[in-house]
Amino acid sequence: MKIAQCWDDGVTTDVRLVSLLRRHGACATFNLNAGLHARERQFGWRHRDVEVWRLGRDELREVYDGFSIANHSLTHPHLDGLPIDAARREISDGRTQLQALFDLPVPGFVYPFGAFDDAVAQAVREAGHVYARTTRSAAAGVETRDPMAAEPSCHFLAPDFWQRLERARPGGAFWFWGHSYELVDEAMWTAFEASLARLCAEPGVQWCNPADFYYGEDP
Q1: Looking at the predicted structure, is the pLDDT value of residue 144 above 80?
Q2: How far apart (Å, rounded) are the C-alpha atoms in residues 113 and 168?
Q3: If residue 29 lies in a helix (H) or strand (E), which one and from where to where?
Q4: N or C: fewer beta carbons within 10 Å in the chain?
Q5: Which residues contact 117 (CB under 8 A, 6 or more apart)?
Q6: Which pTM was predicted?
Q7: Is the pLDDT of residue 142 over 90?
Q8: Can you say whether the dihedral through the CA atoms of 198, 202, 206, 212 is positive or negative?
Q9: What is the pLDDT of residue 50?
Q10: What domains can you pick out in the chain, each with its CATH number?
Q11: What angle do the packed helices 118-126 and 84-102 form, to 10 degrees?
Q12: H or E stretch including 194?
């Protein structure tokens, strides 16, 4: 089974997350907003009364070394609420800056807040992305009919996570997503590592980039 995971927003808890991923040999894609990273770490917001900090721009390459990067727009607005020219800039400038920063192709896009319309989806396609992920969960496995409205299998904290994995098994593709800042205590980190180990022990597991679901390999 092909399994993909992706994590949004470029926050400091990703440092701990990538350490776990490397320990277990699991690939992942990190969805970043190039315009929101100052040179040094900065406070972003609070989640469940825990401070969330964005990584500093100067550490991004080191933190995400060996992982895939996707575009999450330049500054994380509701794209469907912007004039289309402004939305195009958010999309294209975000991709351009990430490719320059990482010196890597950035084929994927993730809609901030999962919000998009037909015009935004077309702008994402025109900017050179090969898929764009929504926040909707597919009925089973991964919904691949429209790459610009890609539906993952579920959020990593979905209460039916393992049932969804079983439903995805016939199609051979499973894709989960989330934010590392949602792991707010040691019990949650321990549970996630146990889940990661279980996924890695899946017979024939192949960790992949979400682009693989649409084109077979990274462009």
Answers
A1: no
A2: 25
A3: strand 29-32
A4: C
A5: 80
A6: 0.95
A7: no
A8: negative
A9: 95
A10: 2-215 (3.20.20.370)
A11: 30
A12: helix 186-200
Tokens describing residue 33: 């907003």
**Tens digit of each residue's pLDDT (9 = 90 or more) over 50-72:** 999 999 999 999 999 999 999 99
Instruction: Tell me the CA distances in angstroms from 165 to 80, 89, 102, 149, 161, one per residue in order.
Output: 31, 37, 32, 21, 6
Distance (Å, whole) CA 13 – CA 11: 6
- pLDDT score for 175: 96
Whose structure tokens read 């991004």?
60
- Per the DSSP assignment, residues forming a β-bridge with 70 are 31
- Tell me the CA distances in angstroms from 100 to 7, 43, 77, one per residue in order: 20, 25, 22
Strands 173-178 and 2-8: parallel
